[in-house]
């Protein structure tokens, strides 16, 4: 399952994500991972959460981004939830590429039996309808 937290900068997306990550960490019988660009969430998340900073690994663009997520799932079979903050800063603002990325992540979600939640910093009307074929807004 893929879910999106959509809104303009300053609309509270990251706060909602933090609450969701910490809630999942308390309930999960597996591992919870949070992916971000830069170490901004370090002190906001439970110590039970595996935090991944994309800048440390040189992740930029949707192909590298997908590779990171697939590697997380491949490297640990009991990942239950993967949360991503600042999706557009990591992958880029090409919405067609974002749509293709979401399609690939939807397949990965099924294969790995993991939930994905992404924050997307834009107005919902800017996103192509094809994204919502694979992801739901929360």
What does this structure look like?
- It contains four helices and six strands.
- It has 138 residues and is of the alpha/beta class.
- Strands 3-2-4-5-1-6 form a six-stranded parallel beta sheet, sandwiched between helices.
- It starts with a strand and ends with a strand.
- The model has no long low-confidence stretch (mean pLDDT 95).
The shape, in one word, is globular
Listing every helix as H and every strand as E from the N terminus to the C terminus, the arrangement reads EHEEHEHHEE
Q: What structural category arises from helix and sheet content?
A: alpha/beta
Amino-to-carboxy terminus distance: 12 Å
Poorly predicted sequence stretches spanning 5 or more consecutive residues: none
The total of beta strands comes to 6
């Amino acid at each position: 399952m893929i879910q999106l937290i959509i809104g303009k900068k300053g609309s509270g997306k990251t706060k909602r994500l933090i609450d969701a990550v910490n809630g999942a960490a308390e309930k999960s019988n597996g591992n919870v991972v949070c992916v971000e660009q830069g170490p901004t969430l370090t002190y906001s998340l439970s110590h039970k959460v595996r935090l991944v900073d994309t800048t440390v690994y040189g992740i930029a663009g949707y192909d590298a981004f997908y590779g990171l997520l697939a590697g997380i799932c491949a490297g640990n079979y009991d990942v239950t939830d993967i949360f991503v903050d600042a999706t557009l800063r990591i992958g880029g603002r090409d919405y067609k590429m974002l749509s293709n990325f979401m399609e690939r992540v939807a397949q990965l979600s099924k294969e790995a039996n993991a939930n994905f939640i992404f924050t997307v910093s834009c107005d919902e009307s800017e996103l192509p309808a094809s994204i919502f074929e694979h992801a739901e807004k929360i």
